[in-house]
Design goal:
heterohexamer; A alpha/beta; B mainly alpha; C mainly alpha; D mainly alpha; C: rod-shaped; binds protoporphyrin IX containing FE; binds adenosine-5'-triphosphate; binds magnesium ion
Chain lengths: 204, 223, 57, 255, 223, 204
């Protein structure tokens, strides 16, 4: 899918992936998350916990919210806190919040006891975001994190992302809008000139 | 069980209790299959008693397999499956725990209902106890084997029927030993324990093979 | 009182009926308690019916 | 006119509040009388002995399970034709009660059948159609549980209820036909001879008691259902109304 | 048929042929049910012949009902159902035509497969012919009644099992008369035509009630 | 759902419905399309065919494309042409195109024989739009018609809409963007003050 793509990212910095519709931003993130197998090449997290795979030290925040409507908001979050293995080590000083505190931070504390079915799309998204706050992991992979969020929540999200960077975390995010992050690198994906394309295996 | 396993188990149980339906619908389907038979075969109580264990087993088989289609599909559709793959927990264990919770919420009710339904089939108390015992041991195996089908069809919209078709051949040994140990208990001369122990062994094998195969299939389906 | 040779069946049927009725009553009571608790929780959050119906049919 | 006035949910709740204590009292009293008559004044049957006492709960619960389906069918017409909100509340809350009465009829029937016919279950026409009725009740309950929008669920269930109402006579008829084909008249039962008045009166009193019990439970279940919908609507409001509070939440994670 | 009806009919047939699977999976499920029985009941050929018609009927019943869940769901998910409601064509007829196309592509294969499968059940030629004839007349009724369940569960993700549970009680008369006319043909003394004609009448009733109820349910589910 | 909403629209004019997310624009269109039952009030199409319901004289162009991937593009369109009843009368002079011509007009003529599964999202949307051209109906109900279309197709769509208006048709459309239509009325939906809300029937 990708040709000649290689990049490395320093601790405490963010990589913003941009490019046209359908160019492969989401696919890149899913590859980093270990959800799409890598045809060639490697992903390495230096200075991480060596016995863990890179994706086990990363949070993926994609288009789907993984919110169960039948459970209450708090139950949803509690589950992810217990289920996702935390990953901490010396160079990443991020700490984690308690579920209720995370919900408060994201402004949906008042819904904690309601079934998640009653949340609006934006509220669901914030609940999904709270996952990243309750389990510390150094890498955040975020696919269009600001979609379905209004302006205020977007600001708040940027604040959280900057805090994560400040704590020594990494962020890779795909986006169509400008993000005001502190330490930022941009990776712009472009379709190669068709004449340039290596005939793919899949074309057979 | 460690914390995360317990959390997963509790979540899955809660979901199936709250979303409701699934257990009720499974038992109802079982009841429907059991009642439909006399309509077909005719109200001949002796004949019914003769084929009763088979009817109960086939009813339980179909109810289990057809109820499995949402085991992973629901989690895949809302993105939970992706996160589970990244959670850093052994996927085989995750599958095993999900199967356990699923069996508790839909398989166990079938086992509990079996003695009730066997009244309709004119089974005597010994036969009733034997069928229930074999179902208790055998239905977990059905769930575990069915999980393979569930993960193979996780990305398909029309799961139910296809899943059953894929998995039925794999469950034939369980069915055979289940029914034959029930039959053995009813007709004294044949020993009950031999087929029953084989059934137990099959369940143990299923508990190993099922989660491993199912986890592999889920990993491939992830992309 | 003597219920004859089939006393067991009579007692069993009355007993099971009693149990079923008790289960129904318990269901109704528990359900009511649940709904009222939910309403109270909402009221504590300041959410209640905005205005009583004013004869709007 | 009175009916339509009380068909407003709020007034309905008030009416239930007033009516319930009386109904409960009446129901308990009737049960006391009925049970006393069933066990102490009613004679034992010269054929069946004391097992005839099972009749005093078997027959009323059998009647009630059919009446309950009638109530649900009428309510379903109310849902589909007049679109009245209380109609599907009524249909929904009647289903579990109907299922319970059907269960009671089945259980008492089987327990009566064992001493009388020597078997708990016979695929007799009447018993079979009651069993099918039980499946229909349970199916309706499952349908209601799986759909989360009560309005939609109510309409779907109403369609199914009415189709079932059409179907029940057909089932009854076909089952009759089916059974007599294979087992002509092997079932001896007592419905031929008219019942003696010493047995009829306890039966009627018990039937009245069961009917009152049905109404008490139905009203209570309907009240719960109204409350449940209120909770649902309020929760929706709770989730959405306080949305503005979000903007003022602190932007710093409390570290 | 007028133009629009023909267009709808052709489209539905084309879709089920091209998407494929559905007919094959249905027949395979039928086969699975039929083969599972000998395993359950044991290899007693006389007994199998005795309950053969019932097994075939029950297999066909389950395969039909469980295959119906996508009848309207596919159209609802991509918005086609909304447009059909606005097309200005009588919805009852639309449902009837869709059922017809569905039966042709999934019910008819079952009927065709029945004589083949009855070999496994040791049925003699008369019984084979009788069962096939009753299935030919009876399965359309199953589809038409099942359509009611399909439209009731059109908005639910877990349609299959619930659909079967809702519809089975409604199909009891069809099953009874189907099996009893097949039995009548096998055991000479009883007349075959009486139950067979009743079965035909039931199919006609289903052709009226099914589409009407199903259209009503679809209208209510639209929003 | 709506309180005190009433509007009427003249022949040959367009109504653009605007408002915040979740305010009910889509619901309004679906109500007009007869897909959501009307709790109170009426919809009347004056001067239409009296024996037909309003929704049978309207096209609905919503978020879903009603395209069957297994059928070819032309088969998809042919079906809708035969299936949807046309609705013409004196005051609406709109004519209809043949399916192939409609596809050509929308620039997807070359895909006519391909299975619709091969179309991209934007092409599917244009195929769905072709439906409106092959069956004449005076009212067009369009929910965010420009979504997934690129600039050029958007211009073309506006041209088609203006043609429809010029032929005496009506258009009701919900949108977040500006539309350059000739005769335009705007209906802006706003959330009522919560204190003002009449308790809903649904609240029981
Ligand atoms: C599970 C088994 C049984 C079921 C489901 C059942 C069901 C019913 C039903 C539905 C009725 C009401 C019929 C009507 O009023 O039209 C009824 C009435 C009655 N049943 Fe049963 N029954 C069962 C077993 C028995 C047995 C074993 C006996 C007695 C030997 C019995 C004796 C009666 C009597 C005496 C009536 C009243 C007859 C009448 O009102 O005409 N039932 N039963
Ligand atoms: N499941 C899939 N099967 C086949 N192809 C796919 C699949 N998912 C994505 N693609 C293709 O992969 C390419 C990259 O898609 P991707 O979703 O990564 O794009 P993107 O850059 O995220 O676009 P957007 O800006 O719309 O989010 C697209 O051409 C798409 O058609
Ligand atoms: N199926 C549904 N069940 C319950 N509520 C719904 C349903 N669909 C929509 N709603 C609610 O109805 C309201 C109006 O939704 P609608 O889709 O009409 O908004 P919209 O104005 O079209 O928004 P957008 O600009 O996002 O398209 C929303 O508050 C939504 O939550
Ligand atoms: Mg993307
Ligand atoms: Mg909208």
């Amino acid at each position: 899918m990708f040709q000649d793509l290689s990049f490395s990212l320093e601790q405490g910095s963010a990589l913003v992936v941009t490019g046209a519709n359908g160019i492969g931003k989401s696919s890149l993130l899913r590859t980093l998350a270990g959800l799409v197998p890598l045809a060639e090449g490697t992903i390495r997290l230096e200075d991480g916990e060596p016995e863990k795979l890179p994706q086990e030290q990363a949070h993926y925040f994609g288009h789907q919210d993984a919110v169960k409507p039948a459970l209450s908001v708090l139950e949803n979050l509690d589950f992810w806190q217990s289920f996702a293995a935390p990953s901490v080590h010396e160079s990443f000083s991020g700490s984690s919040l308690q579920p209720l505190a995370a919900l408060e931070t994201l402004g949906i504390g008042h819904t904690a006891l309601l079934p998640a079915a009653y949340l609006s799309a934006g509220q669901k998204r914030r609940l999904s975001l709270a996952r990243l706050l309750v389990t510390p992991r150094p890498v955040w992979l975020m696919d269009e994190p600001t979609s379905a969020l209004d302006k205020a929540s977007e600001q708040q999200l940027l604040g959280l992302m900057n805090d994560h960077l400040a704590a020594g975390g990494l962020i890779v995010t795909a986006t169509h809008t400008e993000l005001a992050l502190n330490t930022i690198n941009v990776l712009h994906l472009e379709a190669p000139d068709p004449a340039d394309q290596v005939p793919e295996e899949a074309l057979l | 069980m460690t914390g995360w396993a317990m959390a997963l188990f509790r979540r899955d149980l809660r979901l199936s209790v709250r979303i409701g339906g699934s257990a009720i619908v499974g038992v109802l389907f079982f009841l429907a299959v059991v009642t439909v038979f006399p309509f077909g075969v005719g109200p001949d109580l002796n004949l019914l008693a003769r084929i009763g264990p088979a009817i109960l087993w086939i009813g339980a088989l179909l109810a289990t397999l057809l109820g499995l289609d949402r085991l992973f599909q629901a989690d895949r559709e809302d993105g939970t499956l992706d996160l589970m793959l990244m959670a850093g927990r052994p996927l085989e264990l995750v599958v095993l725990i999900k199967c356990l919770a699923h069996w508790l919420s839909t398989g166990l009710p079938l086992v509990v209902a079996a003695p009730l339904f066997s009244v309709f089939l004119n089974l005597d108390p010994v036969a009733m106890a034997a069928v229930t015992a074999t179902l208790l041991v055998g239905t977990p195996a059905l769930t575990l084997i069915g999980a393979i089908g569930a993960s193979l069809t996780v990305s398909l919209r029309r799961g139910g029927l296809l899943l059953a078709v894929l998995v039925v051949p794999l469950t034939v040994p369980i069915l055979i030993f289940g029914v034959s140990s029930a039959d053995a208990a009813i007709h004294d001369p044949v020993p009950f324990m031999t087929p029953f122990l084989i059934l137990c062994a099959l369940t143990l094998i299923a508990a190993v093979v099922g989660p491993i195969a199912s986890a592999a299939a889920l990993r491939f389906a992830a992309d | 009182m003597d219920l004859g040779p089939h006393a067991g069946f009579i007692i069993a049927s009355y007993g099971l009926c009693l149990l079923t009725v008790l289960a129904l009553i318990a269901w109704v009571r528990i359900d009511k308690a649940n709904q009222e608790r939910a309403l109270k929780e909402l009221a504590d959050q300041g959410i209640s019916r905005a205005r009583p119906d004013q004869g709007r049919n | 006119m009175a009916f339509w006035d009380y068909a407003n949910p709020t007034r309905f709740l008030k009416l239930v509040q007033v009516l319930l204590p009386w109904l409960v009292g009446l129901c308990v009293a009737t049960f006391a009388i009925g049970l006393y008559m069933a066990f102490f004044t009613a004679p034992e049957d010269y054929q069946q002995g004391d097992t005839i006492r099972i009749m005093y709960i078997h027959v009323p619960s059998a009647w009630l399970c059919m009446m309950c389906y009638t109530v649900m069918s009428i309510s379903s017409i109310g849902t589909l034709v007049w679109k009245h909100p209380l109609a599907d509340v009524s249909a929904k809350s009647a289903a579990p009660i109907g299922a319970a009465f059907t269960f009671m009829a089945l259980v008492t029937g089987s327990l009566w059948g064992k001493p009388m016919w020597g078997t708990y279950w016979e695929w007799d026409a009447r018993m079979t159609s009651v069993l099918v009725l039980l499946i229909m009740y349970l199916g309706l309950m499952a349908l209601w549980r799986t759909m989360d929008d009560p309005i939609k669920a109510g309409k779907a269930a109403a369609v199914l209820t009415l189709v079932g109402a059409l179907n029940l006579p057909i089932i009854k008829f076909s089952v009759d036909w089916w059974n007599t084909l294979h087992q002509p008249a092997s079932v001896v039962r007592l419905d031929g001879p008219t019942i003696h008045s010493s047995q009829l009166w306890p039966l009627l009193v018990m039937a009245l008691a069961f009917t009152l019990l049905f109404f008490v439970l139905h009203l209570m279940a309907m009240r719960n259902e109204v409350l449940r919908r209120r909770v649902r609507a309020l929760r929706m409001r709770a989730a959405s109304v306080s949305r503005p509070a979000t903007a003022s939440a602190s932007a710093q994670p409390a570290e």
